[in-house]
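Hi F.,

I've been meaning to write this up properly since the lab meeting, where we talked about keeping a consistent format for the predictions we share between groups. The idea is simple: the sequence comes first, exactly as it goes in, then the structure tokens exactly as they come out, then a line or two of notes. No screenshots and no reformatting. I'm using this chain as the first example so we have something concrete to point to.
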Amino acid sequence: MGSSIVYAIDKLKPRHGFHSHYLLPHLPALSTGGDGALVRLKTYDTDSGSSFLPPMHLKTLGFSLLSLICAGHAHESSQYPYVPNDLRCPKGSLPTFVHNSYTYIAPLDKFANITGSFFNIAWEGGCPATVTTGTDNVPGATRGGLCLGGTFNDTLTAYSAHPDGFSYTYHGAPYTFASPGQPRMHWDAYAETMRFESICGGQATYVDFISYICSEDQIATYTEWSELHTVSMQAIAGAIGAPTLAGDCPAAECKN
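Output, unedited:
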């Protein structure tokens, strides 16, 4: 009787920075439950007992399995209480809403390798998190550090990953800082959702930021957040060589 191939989902010990290489290298590894284990696809030859990477023509199976895993992961994440993003600002503080969106001609994985980790925030503003708690990309995790003379403290409230994108939301504690050449600024609270989506059949990526902030100066706050998003994305796009997608999807080359 000939050997058969068995497809299995392995649980892996969590490790910061690990990615699900056997399914989609651009997506952060997914938690499979309370034990925080990660998942990957492996293949086994039932005769020899050896394992190996699935060949290219089995990608469809990998995508299907990942979709099922993501669906389960989303269901499991419902155990975390929903935290409203539309902040109720304290007396004397005014609400500010900022929405920025960008599209670039580069596949999702180019961006996910830089932005896919809640703990790694240095790409947005240049200030790294020096203190973290919990598990990266699992709601309840926290990050904190020094930035522009102040101390920031953020808590992850939601995280979602699927085959063609990911998004996460965090809330921040009161934060006081001063940008170079600017007066001191204070935010009583803030919340932000970041979303990265594959578009144009994998040729390009759509990015958007939705931010809610409580502050004493709405105009200065709006400018600060909008410029932060734009400068950060311009830096990433420059680093990976991703031109702006100004219009419809890139046209495929015609073949005679």
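Notes:
The helical segments are 59-77, 108-115, 218-240.
The chain has two domains: 5-77, 94-240.

If this format works for you, I'll send the rest the same way.

G.
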